[in-house]
Amino acid sequence: MHHTTNAKEGHAAITLQALANSLRRNWLNGILLGLALYIVFFKNISITFNLSGASSGSTAPAVYEAASYAKPAALRGPTSTDHASILPNPAPRWDERSADDFPNLTFVLRPGYAAQLRIRPEIPEAKMGICQRYIQTYKGIAIAEMEQYGVPASITLAQALLESDAGSSELALASNNHFGIKCKAKCLGCTCRNYADDDQYDMFRVFESPEEGFREHSILLQGERYLHLQNLNITDYRSWAEGIKAAGYATDPAYADKLIRIIEALGLSVYDQLGA
């Protein structure tokens, strides 16, 4: 019995000794096998040998450089960038100003302004509505003045719209002065008024009614400095606008262009046909 036990123990000792010898001989192979498995399942490793030292006689050791690379997208979880790429772009914000922040003629004189600044569509629509109501209110007076004094109705309406901002200016509301008509030294019996933004010599006429103000505008354009306008065709609103500007009605260098823009944008030339 002792003999059998000793034989088994001896055999086990030989087996363990053989395994230890095998591990000592193949340890390098085991490390390389583990490294290969790591590369396959986890990341790529690039190894760069610095051999430049050998050619120069240097004995510097080889340099091993390991660089890890991102896993393929299929093996990665979702990232914040992935989520952002599928979200819709936010809509551009509207301009926050209200209709009261704009003069009534803004979008007539600058047709691309609303789209450029992303002003809410209802604001230009509201301003256009104010201009159209003004035209409906005063077109009859303008046509009557054209028939009596020969001033194109389109010119009269365009000047009234521009000078009074479609009837909303203080001059129009408080003095029925829709044309910015000033007091003259020879204006005997005229009522005049000065406004805070003007110097003491810049006095403006006060009229009892809009009709009286429109009539004074027609009479003004019969003056000597405007006599050349009477030679123009009543439907030639462009020449009338340029002639009024050249005669010094306003100091704004773009005055004629603004009148033409208003006439064309609001279709005012149709009223001139009634006097042709």
UniProtKB/TrEMBL annotation:
SMART domains the UniProt entry points to: LYZ2 (SM00047)
A Pfam family the protein falls into: Glucosaminidase
Transmembrane segments: 27-45
Segment forming the signal sequence: none
Gene3D superfamilies the UniProt entry points to: 1.10.530.10
Keyword DNA repair applies: no
Keyword line: Hydrolase, Membrane, Transmembrane, Transmembrane helix
UniProt entry tagged with the keyword Membrane: yes
InterPro entries found in the cross-reference section: Glycosyl_Hydrolase_73, MGlyc_endo_b_GlcNAc-like_dom
Residue stretches making up the Mannosyl-glycoprotein endo-beta-N-acetylglucosamidase-like domain: 124-272
Highest taxon in the source lineage: Bacteria
GO molecular function: amidase activity
Official protein name in the record: Mannosyl-glycoprotein endo-beta-N-acetylglucosamidase
